[in-house]
DNA sequence: CTGAAAGCGCTTACAG
DNA sequence: CTGAAAGCGCTTACAG
């Protein structure tokens, strides 16, 4: 933070200093001032020091937009997530933000609330701002191809809509889902419900696939009625979960495909006075703070959104460096945080 | 999202279209193209339509940085918060982001992790980008004066460091703290600890003041050893809380000054097998998701960070419109979400 | 070692 | 009704 000018009467200057003002005050040309300030090109050391001194005295901060316009290269990246209020996306943004700062990039952030229309608008805003690249948790396939067409590097994170066409950083959803489902099967559960939001995106598709694979591996037939689509919203999902748990033949365990759905199931179980894990076992995909605060703790696939964000920005900056390098999909494995929310099914207990 | 050009071989153009290209393709001057596209100034309707058609066909997206450079006005705002991983700040960012989009502003977001150095760097980055204004949860008094000196409108949110010198949107911390403390006193508690992170910022200062006022109002003497400074980090705070609750003369109730501290106290109580509210009553300042998920739910002052963010951006845009209007501090009141974590102290029970 | 000139992509008085 | 010119704040070959 540089010192600004203060007039003798204590008032502030009306306009921000420009390089022209710095140059005039230092008695050099704008070219020389620019070279002195950026460090590009030669300037006699005493002149350089004088120019820098003057700039500091004037509180001069170079106009990054003008610089970028001239250089045709920006130091901003665009980040587009689905819901900042969800700790998963917030963590992702936190990881990206931290790395961006470390690498001297600035972050434009937008939240599309899951809407493809808003996503498209945000993408256009990023193009207008000529960001160096975009990181997105996509809600449509269009955003990837649109940005590619506009020659803006993109990395899809969490979900992948343009596999092979653009870089991506995703979690190994299938394996993680399979692992936790198997743990439930191993405990003796047979009626394991999958509560999910949608099954077309890679996250939903792969979590569903992992769940199915675990059943297949164990040679256990799967009751398709136990795969329930519960929507996006906690309240709507809570109602669906309530119905599910009130069935005449209810599941003995639930695998919630994300943290919002896990919350919905948790609330529905409380409404029905179902004890966990006594009457119901619960596992979640995506480990968020409350899961280790409640009793019993909720066993969950821990994705580390911060690491996901960091990997995404690394990937993006690599892509900016090497636009023609082969497209890459980075697969991050996830761990399972085992807590107290699972136990053998009640019917198996003596 | 506009259609881009696709060459006959399916490849994309190498460079992004500029207004010059649009103008040439449409057979008009750049001035006319600009007028047609922006809607400023007159253009014969058929010409206007043709230009717009051409622009769409070329996938033309005007360069916002060039436009802003020319107009000396930007449509971006800078937002600087302390910790995106904390749901309070994430909610704040979500509220701001949503309103920004609605008003056709774009948001630059940075996270200073509570460091004044990082805060200063971020402020300078915002100045470099010539944002139209900044919203900040300040960690020092310098950021407000620095940005003011740079002629950039600022609104402080949540905390206030430059009262009177710049706009602010804050919660009525003193009243809310007083209310919850009084509730505890009314239940019969006398040994009510305040677990707090710091007491110099307005948030800490006013929450402490409200707590003291409630004691004074009730004519109950305050044991100063019950005001404990527990630091920023959940783990460090958990250790402090553990010590507090293990004292020979422990408190019968704890007022945690924010959500992180409430989490620390909650964990410490669990470690010590203290039942809530049987052996310990707990109230929190700042209501976050887990507090309604645990059993019993945690009684908390609910701040509505999204509303706080929305108020902040309103205030900022007003300020941008009227730079010389009197400085304003908006005080938002908070409600108390009463849940099951409080009860009369054990010693009062029969 | 330094400065004049050109130009990044826009918009906007101004002249006709 | 439209276009030529200037200029926003920078940087960078290039000439000297």
UniProtKB/TrEMBL annotation, chains A, B:
<keyword id="KW-0805">Transcription regulation</keyword>
<dbReference type="InterPro" id="IPR028082">
    <property type="entry name" value="Peripla_BP_I"/>
</dbReference>
<dbReference type="InterPro" id="IPR000843">
    <property type="entry name" value="HTH_LacI"/>
</dbReference>
<dbReference type="InterPro" id="IPR046335">
    <property type="entry name" value="LacI/GalR-like_sensor"/>
</dbReference>
<dbReference type="Pfam" id="PF13377">
    <property type="entry name" value="Peripla_BP_3"/>
</dbReference>
<feature type="domain" description="HTH lacI-type">
    <location>
        <begin position="17"/>
        <end position="71"/>
    </location>
</feature>
<dbReference type="GO" id="GO:0003677">
    <property type="term" value="F:DNA binding"/>
</dbReference>
<dbReference type="Pfam" id="PF00356">
    <property type="entry name" value="LacI"/>
</dbReference>
<keyword id="KW-0804">Transcription</keyword>
<keyword id="KW-0238">DNA-binding</keyword>
<keyword id="KW-0678">Repressor</keyword>
<dbReference type="InterPro" id="IPR010982">
    <property type="entry name" value="Lambda_DNA-bd_dom_sf"/>
</dbReference>
<protein>
    <submittedName>
        <fullName>LacI family DNA-binding transcriptional regulator</fullName>
    </submittedName>
</protein>
